[in-house]
Amino acid sequence: MTYKALIGALSLATLLVLSATAGPTPAEGWIMAGSAPQEYELGIAPGGGQNRGPAGFLKSKADSTTGFGTMMQQFSADEYRGKRVRLSAAVRSENVKGWAGLWMRVDEKNGRTSAFDNMQTRSIKGTTGWQRQDVVLDVSLEAQSIALGVLLRDGGSVWIDQVRFEVVPESVAVTGIASAAMRSGPANLGFTR
């Protein structure tokens, strides 16, 4: 799945799930979304955290899936406009066939995504112990909302613990790319450059 297609899928999935969500999920404040949310489950593992406390989890219901699932939330960007923010968590995985990662997206009032990172280029695969993961983005002055979570593509499970969302100084490097850095169309299709 291409970068732009994944951004589009996450945006569409967010809108569909937010408009269809009726009632609480097993993990209050978190919702299930993605291109194939019906193929995944989310919840809380009471003693599944890094220090035996609670942890959130996202698991595929089958060994193989047709799309991705995400355990996510979305909120107003009002307090974060013009700032750099970091989503961090301890993450562990079990039998991840495709890939998994933390993700964060900044959307503007016009529906445009201004910044995005899903860890696809540094994804979590297979079975891992607890590892700290970070996603850092700049929130534009035109930002309307911030969406974040953990995603899983294909079979397996991921757990997240010690989740933090915070404003960080400019000295902390951005992990994602701003939409302005994306091309508006294909380039060098004839391989002449």
Summarize the structure.
The chain is mainly β. Helices cover 9% and strands 49% of the residues. The protein has a single domain, classed as Jelly Rolls (Sandwich).
CATH class: Mainly Beta
Count of helical regions: 1
Instruction: Kindly estimate the percentage of residues that lie in beta strands according to DSSP.
Output: over 45%
Instruction: State the CATH architecture.
Output: Sandwich
CATH topology: Jelly Rolls
Largest sheet: 10 strands, antiparallel
Shape: globular
What does this protein structure show overall?
- With 193 residues, this protein is mostly beta strands.
- The protein has a single domain, classed as Galactose-binding domain-like (Jelly Rolls).
- It contains one helix and ten strands; from the N terminus they run αββββββββββ.
- Strands 1, 2, 3, 4, 5, 6, 7, 8, 9 and 10 form a ten-stranded antiparallel sheet that branches.
Outline the secondary-structure elements:
Elements: H1 3-20, E1 31-34, E2 40-45, E3 55-60, E4 68-76, E5 84-108, E6 113-117, E7 124-138, E8 143-153, E9 157-168, E10 177-178
Antiparallel strand pairs: 1-4, 2-3, 3-9, 4-8, 5-6, 5-7, 5-8, 5-9, 6-10
What are its keywords?
10-stranded antiparallel β-sheet, Jelly Rolls, 10 strands, 49% strand, mainly beta, 193 residues
